[in-house]
Design goal:
The chain has one domain. Helix 1 crosses helix 2. It is built from two helices and five strands. Strands 1, 2, 3, 4 and 5 form a five-stranded antiparallel beta sheet that branches.
C-alpha cells in the first residue's frame, strides 16, 4: 500500500456495510487533545481519535481538506467540553451520540455528502 502525502494509506479499507453498501474508512492522522476547563483552570485533558466512514474513492478529498476538517472538529469538541460533555460520565452513550451527531454535521459542512458518519475510535480523559 502506498502512503499519501498526509501519511494515510490509500484505499486500504473498503468494506461492505450492514445496509449492503460499500464504504471506505479513513483514520485522521493525529489525535485531538481537548482541555476541560473548570473554575478557570484546566481540570483535565481529553484525547480522541477519529475515523470517517466515507463514500468509496473519496479518501483524497478528505486528505486535501483535513486542516479545515480538523478545525471544524476542534470547535465542536471545545463546545462539547464547555457545556460539560467531557465531565462526569463522559463516555455515557447519550453523551457520545450528541458528540458524534455534532461532528457529523461539521463534517458535512466541510465535505458535503461524502462523509457517511464520524467514528470515535479512541477516547480517554486524564484528570489533573
Amino acid at each position: 500500500m502506498e502512503a499519501t502525502a498526509t501519511g494515510h494509506k490509500a484505499g486500504d479499507s473498503n468494506v461492505r456495510t450492514d445496509d449492503g453498501t460499500v464504504a471506505e474508512y479513513v483514520k485522521l492522522s493525529n489525535q485531538f487533545v481537548i482541555p476541560v476547563i473548570e473554575k478557570g483552570r484546566v481540570a483535565s485533558m481529553v484525547v480522541l481519535s477519529l475515523s470517517l466512514e466515507i463514500l468509496p474513492g473519496q479518501a483524497e478529498a478528505i486528505h486535501l481538506r483535513e486542516p479545515k476538517l480538523r478545525d471544524a472538529f476542534l470547535q465542536v469538541m471545545f463546545d462539547h467540553a464547555n457545556v460539560g460533555g467531557f465531565s462526569g460520565s463522559f463516555t455515557d452513550g447519550s453523551n457520545l451520540v450528541v458528540l458524534r451527531e455534532n461532528l457529523g454535521e461539521a463534517a458535512a459542512m466541510v465535505l458535503g455528502p461524502i462523509v457517511r458518519s464520524v467514528l470515535i475510535t479512541d477516547i480517554a480523559r486524564q484528570d489533573s
